[in-house]
Amino acid sequence: MARAVATTRAATTAATARAAAADARIEVRKTYKLYVGGAFPRSESGRSYLVSAKDGTPLANASRASRKDVRDAVRAAAKAGPGWAAKTAMNRGQVLYRVAELMEGRRDQFIAEVRAAEGLRDARAAEVVDRTIDRWVWYAGWADKITQILGSSNPVAAPYFNFTIPEPTGVVGVVAPETSSLLGLVSRLAPPLVSGNSVVLLTSETRPLPAVTLSEVLATSDVPGGVVNILTGLKRELVPVLAAHRDVDALDTWGVSDAMRTETELLVAEDIKRLARRPTTVSEARFDWLDDRATERPEWIAAFLEMKTVWHPIGI
Amino acid sequence: MAGMATRTSSSVVPSAENGVNSWGLGDGQAVPWEYAPAPEARDIVTLKERYGLFINGREVPATGGETFTSVDPATEQPLATVAKATSADIDKAVRAARKAQRRSWGQLAGKERAKYLFRIARILQERSREFAVLESMDSGKPIKESRDVDVPLAASHFWYYAGWADKLDYAFPGRVAKPLGVAAQIIPWNFPLLMLSWKIAPALAAGNTVVLKPASTTPLSALLFADVCLQADLPPGTVNIVPGPGTIGMDLVTHPGVDKVAFTGSTEIGRKIYQGVAGTDKGLTLELGGKAANIVFDDAPLDQAVEGIVNGIYFNQGEVCCAGSRLLVQESIAPALIDKLKDRLATIRVGDPLDKNTDVGAINSKQQLEKITELVQSGVDEGAELYQPACDLPERGYFFRPTLFTNVAQSHRIAREEIFGPVLSVLTFRTPDEAIEKANNTPYGLSAGVWTDKGSRILDMVSKLKAGVVWANTFNRFDPTSPFGGYKESGFGREGGMHGLHAYVRLEDR
């Protein structure tokens, strides 16, 4: 596993390079790509940007997605959404649980990536990864329960059977937290996903690499291609495109910087998108993603649901 | 078409020969039904010459003393002079609401809030006829509807949410529901009192205080409601009512002392309001426009469907955001259904809103009448076929004939834009899939109707329709326990039911 972790350039210091030469074993580095429609393309723009560890050590070149990549991802999400929403709730729960299973299998790799990306010590990085896996499990379990919690049968004062059920909103744009590259991201990705939405996710700009590895897990865990699309790149470039896209039905702006907040919401308002936003009183950098009570909430699922009320006559 | 705008019985519209003879009695058997006038007495309403703003439990003039006139749309005569709120008044109202939220209303136990709301419900029931008559005078809606729908539903909304005030813990299991603070509420002119109740009842139940701006053409029932608040001894500042133009509404939305904004109205204004709260932490719910599809399958009970279609589009002159303005008929039954519909249209009575026999009253304002006329003209210009019954319209007032368009294409403006008038566009389909595609082919998603005898088909259609409310073999039903609200550009958030509370609370950990 340790060798696999050397996907990051953090490990390739001058000393390890000399050691590698002595062993005559040159590591195979990973190319960090986008994840769109179940495939791993580079940005159509042919651009990349250098990602560094918290201590400044260069880690890799990440794809720098373009406006066109955003549009491609939205199209893939819109196409895959109905099939995902039509799966049985229990099936969606099992698929998301399988994401946790596969993450568990790659636990060491994720720990190394999170450690490098966020500059955490080993024990802390391990805690973050374990909690990420557990968070998938927590949200996966909601798949076949949220309807019972949020739906209702309504005793109207007339001879009608009247009920309200939640349905997925559709295509959800998620601007992932900037600081918490994996745990924060999964905490915002799982809620829209579990109820049957499809997602276009912009990763942390400065810490995108754990998300790309997560996309490899998603690709092999029965999440249908296009249900989750993951883009790396510059938020300044990509957030306005995602916020303005007419086929995006809801936007999670948790990872939008305070400086970009208002302009993003003005775009969201154009076509009355649903908006899930971080309260202005909550600091993005200081939010505690390890706090289960603050991050495991059915309301986070409800933010990407539409309530449908049905009237059916009785005895007519 | 030119004749339509003159609104006299002599201005016969293009297809009048159908209308005149369509009494269901066969060719040449037209026997117009005569109805003796059955006017509801107006003396139950004591109109004041001048109405002030209602701020901090008192009626006060607007800062600067400006006023506007509320007009009876059925006679074009002024009803009363109403104080026109200014930015300074908005500020006063928000401060009064804040003070009440901190010191009186917000401090009350849920049990006590409940009793106040029950009081309001009871007073509305006691004064129901007064409210119904005033509502019909100010808005132009038929007394039949204000008496049997608007006012009873408004009272029952207060009744329903009264009971929630001391049971919030059960609405949000595992969480503690806290009020948001001051709610800014802006309501439209189509259901003035009912929309007031949809807004105020859940807000107060959850412990918020409110500043409400009624529509500028229909402020009177809200100002009469101020009197109900006084009769109920509601703590001053709990409810504040500030009539005025749209600009004042934006002042209210952007006021920094407001914690939550709730708006019902057009998508165009809703967008501006959404932008008005951008970058803040204000809560927002929007209930916006619609272009509902009413889908009739070949196995539907036709006579029942015809009644539902008529209720769907001509209820409240079609000035309903969830109106069934697009009729989608399965091709095989289209001719038969359209014939029945035309026959039925000929029996609709258009006229004095205060007459107990009136089905379709006055259009709310001159401006709205012009909008309807313009869109109907576009339907003719774009090639759809117009049908109107040759009914007499009053000489004065803003009236419009119940209108039906056939040969409508999806690209026509009358099939895409919200008309907010008694205008039905008929389209056809062959398969259920085509019906779904056409029904969902709109940026709106407020409501839809499905008519078929087959239960499993109803549920299949329900699951595929992108609409917040789906009526099966019925249309335009409302109930305080039943959540109402839109998908897509029809807005977000729900009003009514347990879901309606959600917009007015902040959930905290236990």
Give the key terms.
heterodimer, A: 316 residues, alpha/beta, Aldehyde Dehydrogenase, Chain A, domain 1, three-stranded antiparallel sheet, disordered N terminus, B: 510 residues, Aldehyde Dehydrogenase, Chain A, domain 2, 2 domains, 18 helices, 20 strands
In short:
Chain A has 316 residues and is an alpha/beta fold. Helices cover 44% and strands 16% of the residues of chain A.
Write structural notes for this entry.
The complex is a heterodimer of chains A (about 325) and B (about 500). Chain A has about 325 residues and is of the alpha/beta class. Chain A has a single domain, classed as 3-Layer(aba) Sandwich (Aldehyde Dehydrogenase, Chain A, domain 1). In chain A, about 45% of the residues lie in helices and about 15% in strands. Chain A has helices at about 1-5, 15-25, 65-85, 90-105, 105-120, 120-140, 145-150, 185-195, 210-220, 235-245, 260-270, 290-295, 300; strands at about 50, 60-65, 150-155, 160-170, 170-175, 200, 230, 250, 275, 305-315. In chain A, the strands form 3 sheets. In chain A, strands 7-6-5-8-9 form a 5-stranded parallel beta sheet, with helices on both faces. In chain A, strand 8 (about 250), helix 11 (about 260-270) and strand 9 form a beta-alpha-beta unit. The model of chain A is unreliable at about 1-10 (pLDDT under 50). With about 500 residues, chain B is α/β, with parallel strands linked by helices. Chain B folds into 2 domains: about 1-35 and about 290-470, 3-Layer(aba) Sandwich (Aldehyde Dehydrogenase, Chain A, domain 2); about 50-290 and about 485-510, Aldehyde Dehydrogenase, Chain A, domain 1, CATH 3.40.605. Chain B is built from 18 helices and 20 strands. Chain B has helices at about 1-5, 15-20, 85-105, 110-125, 130-140, 145-165, 170, 190-205, 220-230, 245-255, 265-275, 300-315, 335-345, 365-380, 415, 430-440, 455-465, 500, and strands at about 50, 55, 60, 65-70, 75-85, 175-180, 180-185, 210-215, 240, 260-265, 285, 295, 325-330, 385, 405, 425-430, 445-450, 470, 490, 505-510. In chain B, helix 4 runs antiparallel to helix 6. The model of chain B is unreliable at about 1-30 (pLDDT under 50).
